[in-house]
Each structure stands twice: as structure tokens, then as C-alpha cells.
Amino acid sequence: MERSALDLWVGLFVCAGLGALLILAMKVGNMTSIGLGNHTYILYANFDNIGGLKARAPVKSAGVVVGRVASIGFDNARYNARVELSIDDRYKFPKDTTASILTSGLLGEQYVGLDAGGDSVNLGPGEAIKLTQSAVVLEKLISQFLYSKAAEGDTAKK
Question: Which pTM value belongs to this model?
């Protein structure tokens, strides 16, 4: 009888550990809001360059997560990236809202930042955010810096 009680407690402890690992894995994979019945609406934003933005990345406004990136596709008509944003129904944004691709910290994950404008009319489901700012690509910045330094060296020699 004593051995079966000990086996029961060990089994419960193992199940609790597996449950904790599952929750941790869902947190790391940005999958914590799946299946919770959140009501959302869709907004679209077109960017020239999305950098390392991925589906399920957070959408933040004033540091608060207001939604997630639902999907990322390519717009054949405009030759840029079309990002579908799933925004929680509790949050409404004016028509002159701007969307930017930002990075958490120096080398952190990328997310979409929304800066609300001052328009009295709000964006509706399925509408596009007109004002966007693409991701800052570190490689482009470095190459521009090196190119400008090389150009300065050429003019200094002359």
C-alpha cells in the first residue's frame, strides 16, 4: 500500500512537470492565445522590407500587445510585403495610424508597432494602414556606412 501511494505522488509530479513544459513551450512559440476565443479583426499593412518579421509576432501599441501578425505574403501588384494583422476587438485605431517594424532590444525579436494618429474615424475590419515604416536592416546600414567612408577617402585623396 505504501509503495502505490509513492508511485501515485511521483506520477502526479511528472504530469505537473510535463504540463509546465507544455506551457513554457507555448509561451516561447507565441502560441498562448490560441483557442482562447479572443475576438479579433483584421488590418493590413504593406512594407517594402519586413526584415525578420514572422507570423505570430506581437503587434504592440504603447508597449501593450494589442494583436498578432496573422500572416505575411507578397503583393504582386506593388512588389512589397503584405502583412495581415489580427487585432483584438477591444482596441480601435484611427485611420491615420502608422505601422512600423521594430526590434525588441538590440538583437531581439521583431514586432509591429502601431502609433495612433489623431483622426476621429477609426480603421474598420479589412482596411489597410496607409502609413508604414519598413524594418531597419543592419546589413544595409553597414554597407551604406562603408560606402560613405570609402567615398570620403576617395575625395580626400583628390
Answer: 0.69
